[in-house]
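Tokens as discussed.
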């Protein structure tokens, strides 16, 4: 008598860890961001679920539909809190120009991410937003180096942010300037 044929091993899909709704929501948004950038509005909830390591139905426990997921990704991209935390992490005792380059790098990363997300979703998800306020962390960085600026810390922060956005935004400049060049222009102007 021969042994019965071996059954092929079937990969066992494990259930995703149980998370509170807000944590699950954040995990889905984080998983959806790169997919949204790659596929735009055509991204599927199946792709998002696979990236998040969850069943597709789990998405609909925290979001009513795919549009709500995409809107949450856009809102997360516009949330200033992560960049504010990162700016606060810059050592105020560091060399002034080094600290400014770090700040410019963070502002550039954020502005490019916001631009890429809004370009990926199209006009359906664009909402009127209040004017962006100047980062308190950036103002505080200028306060720590008050002796190095000739304007108020608030005006310095506004100017650096405006210059950085102008020299970074893909619709305004062909190739974004590196932080070192932006800081040099900010501190020394374009003169010889």
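Sequence:
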């Amino acid at each position: 008598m021969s042994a019965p044929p071996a059954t092929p091993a079937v990969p066992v899909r494990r259930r995703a860890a149980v998370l509170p709704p807000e944590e699950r929501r954040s995990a889905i948004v984080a998983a959806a961001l790169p997919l949204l950038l790659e596929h735009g509005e055509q991204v599927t909830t199946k792709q998002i679920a696979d990236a998040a390591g969850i069943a597709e139905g789990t998405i609909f426990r925290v979001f009513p539909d795919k549009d709500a997921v995409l809107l949450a990704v856009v809102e997360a991209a516009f949330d200033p809190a992560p960049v504010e935390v990162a700016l606060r992490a810059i050592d105020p005792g560091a060399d002034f120009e080094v600290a400014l380059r770090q700040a410019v790098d963070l502002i550039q990363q954020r502005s490019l991410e916001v631009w890429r997300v809004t370009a990926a979703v199209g006009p359906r998800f664009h909402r009127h937003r209040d004017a962006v306020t100047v980062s308190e962390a950036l103002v505080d960085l200028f306060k720590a180096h008050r002796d190095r600026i000739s304007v108020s810390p608030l005006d310095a922060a506004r100017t650096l942010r405006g210059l950085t956005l102008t020299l970074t935004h893909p619709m305004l400049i062909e190739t974004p300037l590196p932080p070192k060049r932006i800081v040099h222009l900010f501190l020394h102007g374009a003169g010889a």
